[in-house]
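Incident log, structure service

09:12 report received: a user says their structure output differs between two submissions of the same chain.
09:20 pulled the input from the user's history:
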Amino acid sequence: MTGLVILAAGESSRLGEPKQKVLFKGKTLLQRTVDTALHSACRPVIIVLGAYANEIQSEIESENVIIYHNPHWEEGMASSIRSGIEVLVKTESEASDVIIMVCDQPFAEATLLNDMINKKAITGKEIIACSYENTLGVPVLFDKKFFPELLSLKGEEGAKNLIMKHKEFVADIPFPLGSFDIDTTDDYKALITPQ
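09:34 re-ran on a clean worker, output below:
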């Protein structure tokens, strides 16, 4: 069983408003990510909230997710990854792996997540990372053997640290639109402006 952790705890300081609540095609970025996760083979789906947690949680339209408020979100991304893995291990002790994704990659789809699970099964590789713009990143699947290292991340360390540290265990999956995320108002304008 593959669990899924959505990282949605940041305060979006560069954007100036909670990116989790930014609208794209009639839904918030976070709701789109939740829908993507629930349409995939991943279970359970865990959302880690932090900044603006109460107002964001009230807008999540699903009872089929586990929502965790990370009290240490200000430490950085590592604390949210740790929180997500801790909740996964407590909730689903049989989880064989986890996919970690962020809430501001609007073009991530359920087929991508399922392809990652399948690629692990086919290749035997224990980390499946998305490739875009000559790098590897999220969404990323980690076998449970990496849970202890995920639980030891600190500060602003993210999943990429482990991907780069363990390249011999990595298979990549193309996700060209993965490079598009929403950090600034210019990013958001580019997202909603017809091409």
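09:41 both user submissions now match this output. Likely a transient worker issue. Closing.
09:42 reviewer note: The mean pLDDT is 91. The chain has one domain: 2-192.
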